[in-house]
């Protein structure tokens, strides 16, 4: 009987050590997932965007497009613009014009 009892104890020890539950408990304690791609993305984004706290806020600029400028004056002229028109200002101009013409809801 001693022989059977000792072998059953040995089987229990071996089976508990190799069981999926015991292995999972050991692996979760040791392994921590680190998303290296996310860390690299945040670092590249920080380089691209820069430190916003150090940037000086610019006062709003005067509009390049005059309030009296018409669609035809601006877009049908063959002469180059005197200075670059920011995209935001051009979009605002076009939306205002399209609303007046009933082309934009």
TrEMBL record:
Please give the start and end residues of each transmembrane region: none
Domain Gag1-like clamp, residue spans: 5-58, 68-105
Compositionally biased region (Polar residues): 1-18
Domain of life per record? Eukaryota
Q: Where is this region: Disordered?
A: 1-30
Q: What is this protein called?
A: Gag1-like clamp domain-containing protein
Q: Which organism is it from?
A: Flemingia macrophylla
Q: What is the lineage of its organism?
A: Eukaryota, Viridiplantae, Streptophyta, Embryophyta, Tracheophyta
């Amino acid at each position: 009987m001693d022989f059977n009892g000792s072998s059953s104890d040995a089987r229990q020890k071996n089976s508990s050590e190799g069981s999926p539950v015991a292995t999972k408990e050991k692996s979760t304690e040791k392994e921590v997932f680190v998303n290296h791609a996310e860390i690299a993305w945040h670092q590249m984004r920080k380089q691209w965007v820069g430190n916003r706290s150090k940037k000086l806020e610019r006062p709003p600029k005067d509009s390049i497009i005059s309030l009296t400028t018409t669609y035809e004056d601006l877009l049908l002229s063959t002469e180059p613009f005197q200075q670059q028109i920011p995209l935001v200002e051009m979009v605002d101009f076009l939306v205002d014009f399209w609303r007046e013409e009933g082309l934009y809801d």
